[in-house]
Amino acid sequence: MLVLHGGPGAHHDYLLPQFLQLADEYELVFYDQRGGGRSRTEDRSPITWRTHVEDLGLVATELDLNPPVVIGYSWGGLLALLHAIEADTDTSLTSPERLVLIDPAPVSRAFREQFEAEFSRRQQGAGISGLREELAASGLRESDADAYRQRQFELGVSAYFADPRRASELTPFRVTGRVQQQVWDSLGDFDITSELRALTIPAIVIHGRQDPIPLASSEAVASALDARLVVLDDSGHVPYVEQPEALWETVREGLRGIATG
Q: Tens of pLDDT along 3-19?
């Protein structure tokens, strides 16, 4: 199965080790999407959503994953949907056999703006502000620079979690800001919900109830695809950290019927 990480502009490492829970039954293929991780490039040509869709198709072809079974997390979920839409009309791309979408990124600009507002509200809220104050008073910056940088990373992603303190369990990662901005800009004033209705791909959509991404976005995806929607309680945007048992049980249910390796 092809596993698509989030971002855009990030890399696959931060899905590990948790995603390897599926490796007991399935062969998982991870790759760093163009512009991030080991796929960073000095080429200043714009990297757009179409670039990522084309790359996904090339990876699937190169590894003989046609049709691919795709697990998309966060931005990777949106990328999987964009690829499926393009493959529906472009014969050079192969439609996925099945989609597992874990907390997919917003599927419209309006949902994206709601997410940004909610994420900002959480970051400025009393809980995370208190954690920042704890760090400032800890003296960690002077006593252990590496630990201080790690804690800064955790605070930077805390708003994604139902419990901000669980951010310490997430494998650190970096996002190439230039790539992230280029991809989102290339989508413009997007809304793909109507295009999803033309697809007939078996899919399951999983969403953490406390995810700053609006639940309505995943509801729209599930409705358009006529797919099952599973909402995980006590989980934000990172269910593989906050609710791993419930997540992997749900993913395995969604993958039933696919030959195991």
A: 999 999 999 999 999 99
